[in-house]
Amino acid sequence: MTMVVYGVLMLWCAIVGLAMRPGVMEDQTPLRSSSSAANSSSYDYADALEKAILFLEGQRSGQLPSNQRVTWRADSALSDGKLQNLDLTGGYYDAGDNVKFGWPMSFTVTLLSWANIEYQTQKQTDQNLQSAIRWGTDFILKAHTSPTTLFTQIGDGNADHQCWERPEDMDTPRTLYKIDSSSPGTEAAAESAAALAAASIAFKKTDPAYSSTLLTHSKSLLDFADKYRGSYSLSCPFYCSYSGYQDELLWAASWLYKATGESQYLNYITSNQGWSHAVNEFSWDNKFIGAQTILTQEFYEGKNELGKFKSDAESFVCAVMPGSSSQQIKTTPGGLLYTRDSSNLQYTTSSTMVLFIFSKILSRNNVSGIQCGFSHFTAPQIRDFAKTQVDYILGKNPMSMSYMVGFGSNYPKKLHHRGSSIPSIKDQQGKVGCSDGMSNYYNSPNPNPNTHVGAIVGGPDSNDHFGDERSDYSHSEPTTYINAAFVGSVAALLAE
After folding, report:
1. Is cis: bond before 30, omega within 30 of 0?
2. Which principal EC class is assigned to this enzyme (predicted)?
3. pLDDT tops 80 at residue 170
4. Which pLDDT score, from 0 to 100, does residue 28 have?
5. Residue 495 β-bridge partners
6. Average pLDDT, the chain
7. What is the mean pLDDT of residues 24-50?
8. Of residues 285, 312, 314, 477, which has the active-site annotation?
9. Residues 232 and 188: beta-carbon distance below 8 Å
10. How many CA atoms lie within 13 A of 465 on its CB side?
11. Residues 161, 416, 417, 452: which is the catalytic one?
12. Cα within 13 Å of Cα(300), Cβ side
């Protein structure tokens, strides 16, 4: 998250009224080698995929492993939970800050797992992806301390966002926030359930015992989320729920049905299909299209009672495809899907991931395409448009700018990211305090000393312009969920 005055941020929320921030599908599609990908495009998608995953290592909290590849980072937040006799170390810092927000972290894990399920990668890449998933799931398991208790945030967001310091130097309060039966947060609990269910599928072959543990916790979390319903508000003003919790409940139930095939979850989905409605975005706040996409495949496998979800999924595609008579999300002059001017690439990457998976579902089931008013879109057309979004992010845009740090030669150099913008503790061991970090590094005109390879920033404005200013958090800050969705998108381009 970004350094903003609380009142201004809440006013922005009120104006926008939306997010401020930025059976199993068994037929995994194999990936081509990087050389064959290079023959079909000027971009090395295999390299982009590996870098997108690598970024997550730079976001790790806790004690780093011996095989840590992002070496400018070091151990941090090793006392999280200790005062309460809990071990809440690990997990991810969500963006350029030093807070662990459990709700978007779980969404990141769900997306990474979905990519791992849909697309078989080369062995080493697959191992790195599963390591990224496990770093998140291990934390979620720790945070789920009882059937009706889930710790959802570690760190005081307001204090943290007034500070500019490395996570290794962090001295702001590591306040614990939790939901329980008397203070529920259905969105956070249900998203954690979705993450663990999806991850249980990803680990089913490689680590069956771990997969079983994930599934047990997932079922418990969905029971908790559903029995004690209440909208999640603990992360406000940083992560506020605007879409309600019905989308997360459907999302979690869909993943649990995919993971188990148990009829109770299908019955839950069909009995609550009235919750589903057409949307035009996919984000940490709004998961309807995620559930609708999963259930579209189930419809084509003979579950006709899921027809509403298929129709709603098609409406999403119609809302984002250029040339559709019901298009709602417009593109910039350079062709980028543009939902809103607040970390827009989070919506672009997530929409693109859905488009790739939806086109794959159409092809898999020999469906000619979908009708959007007077326009008809085939699976290849949907896929081709999704590819333009990946290419735009990697450099095919009016500024010839790669919005992935370290990819190509022209990419953002002044990331809105504390750890990246302050010299590594391994190079400068003296403590960099809150105000020193602000005056010496946040306000510095120089490029960040640490290249946060793989980080995808919030992206350009509606006119395809990007200023590369550290203070411009809406455009210069990376997040884990932008990268997680991009992993699924670029993996699709490597698929045969």
Report:
1. no
2. hydrolase
3. yes
4. 54
5. 31
6. 92
7. 57
8. 477
9. yes
10. 4
11. 416
12. 18
Q: Reply yes or no on whether 156 is catalytic.
A: no
In the chain, what is the greatest distance between 2 CA atoms, to the nearest angstrom? 65
Residue of 44, 391, 436, 468 with catalytic role: 468
| pLDDT at residue 33 is higher than 50 | no
Taking only the tens place, the pLDDT of each residue in 294-320 is: 999 999 999 999 999 999 999 999 999
Angle (nearest 5°) at CA 338 between 333 and 342 = 125
Q: Which residue has the tokens 């997010």?
A: 19
Q: How many CB atoms lie within 10 A of CB 36?
A: 12
Q: Which two tokens stand for residue 45?
A: 């998608």
Q: Domain residues of the chain, as ranges?
A: 6-494
Tens digits of per-residue pLDDT, 185-236? Answer: 999 999 999 999 999 999 999 999 999 999 999 999 999 999 999 999 999 9
Which class does domain 6-494 fall in? mainly alpha
Residue 226 is a catalytic residue: no
Tokens read off for 138: 């291990």
pLDDT digits (tens, 9 = 90+) for 437-476: 999 999 999 999 999 999 999 999 999 999 999 999 999 9
| Residue 137 structure tokens | 């799931």
Which residues, at least 6 apart from 263, have a Cβ–Cβ distance to it below 8 Å? none
